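Example 593, ligand 1-deoxynojirimycin.
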Amino acid sequence: MDSDVLTRSGRAYGAASDRRGPSAPTDGATTPREGSVSPPQDDPLWWRSAVIYQVYVRSFADGNGDGTGDLAGVRARLPYLKDLGVDAIWFNPWYPSPMADGGYDVSDYRDIHEQFGTLDEAEALIREALALGIRTIIDVVPNHISDQHEWFQAALAAGPGSAERERFWFHPGKGENGDEIPTRWVSSFQGETWTRTMEPDGSPGEWYLHMFTPEQPDLNWNHPDVRREHEDVLRFWFDRGVAGVRIDSAALLIKDADLPEVGEKPDHPTEDRDELHDVYRSWRAIADSYPGTRVLVGEIWVPDIERFTAYLRPDEMHTAFNFDFLARPWNAASFRASITSTLAAHAPVGAPSTWVLSNHDVTRPVTRYGREDTAFAFLKKRFGVPTDPSLGLDRARAAALLVAALPGSLYIYQGDELGLPEVEDLPPQLIEDPMHYRSGGIDPGRDGCRVPLPWSGQTAPFGFGPDGSRSWLPQPAFWATLTVEAQLADPASTLHLYKQALRLRRQLPELGDGDLEWWDDAVSGAPGILAFRRGEGFACLVNTAEDPVALPADHEVLLASAPVQDGRLPGNATAWLASRTTHPSREPAASRG
Ligand code: NOJ
């Protein structure tokens, strides 16, 4: 292979990959401050194959017993993450915030929310994780800030026409009295995207833009202060050793200043505008000026796959979340179409794909895959949609092995490794998510996937916090069987399946970054089979149908999401296989049951 770069697993990468390694500081990028913490530099391409675990801090582990997860809780559980076998943690926003949108309303980008801890604790956490070989990725939220942020408060106080308002999208209303909304742009959270301000004398004033809630005013990315501020924030955290940033709402930052309605011009006024690429080029230059490959990961919901991968050109972001796959129904042909188009679109830009089954915004896979309609769409979310949790769990386990075998990096949302279902019966008065309220109560919102993790014991809070404490959202009583403690004691548990998969992924040079080859004749005549090979002798076979299938006799089973009996893989299951002829035989890992 044309390469001189070897990774942790001894795998070699080709020239296209090498292009994307760290480069010398570019004009405009400062060198890291003295004494700054750096992740290891021995594997510059770590991110191409990394397994990244998403920590929603508020719901991961509560160190001080106030019912809310915190950094002390995460620090205490780092050995768990090490044991699970992850390479990095992505933290949802951990900054001071009034929590109008679960922390995506940031009031200070350089500090830690007081309920979560302190900046010193964050620095200690980053160092302790690094000592265990785990990198830290943080969330940055550039599209909007909290209405409590000092910039927005200053803008309100300064009034129309002021320099302070230029950093946002303040605009007079339409109509004679300015009481008509400036545009009819629709929020991703449903409803209007402009809110009218009140002048100090009580009279109605200008409107301001917010693509999400009114508590999240959008920043004006045409303003140099806004660009400079975010570049400084990147340096602030890179100096503290973070290995990358997840960029929230990354395709929304730039707006058409003429404020056209959607459809009035060929390009979209608020989404995926060409000018965005310059922003990320300047961010990439900053990231590349730091040792240890600091990565940019975009949250990009752009349906056109070519426009999506344009953000992943070598001088822009490293990777972006692949939501196309996440939204697909439980269907072999649909999965294959998504995988094929994803890999084909990533190849020309030399970027690896990411594989994401869930996150803090979407319905948990166990619940989703147990429904009649297994595809995911925000606008479809409703209360009371029936699900078969046992079928859903089988499929979620199978999907976990599928995505862990695909080429690229892998994201695991906290609790998916425990097979947690969505909690669909939260007491209505405890629901906090603005998506629920802005839908008029029709959309259940996202709190059901944000319920605090169960760690141990028989009663709530299941070790989430100290005995006797309560969690900010209640956990179902049946989670006693799903705790980390219970699953560690059960070799057939979902937690064990994840641990085995991640251990094999680390050991097998065929997994992680690279290519795949579809294996069409793996099982002849059976419907619903998805099979592919990687490297010399590794294969993954998914049976999305109901009936068992006979596995190819010339392969041994390395791992399976359901018990393989008499060489037959049950329906709704995945097996990882090794060719007996071309792959050195390995000790088979246990399967479920
Ligand atoms: C995407 C985040 O994942 C979501 O949780 C948040 O509500 C929106 N961006 C707005 O920041």
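Summary: Residues 150-209 form a domain with the Oligo-1,6-glucosidase; domain 2 fold (CATH 3.90.400.10).
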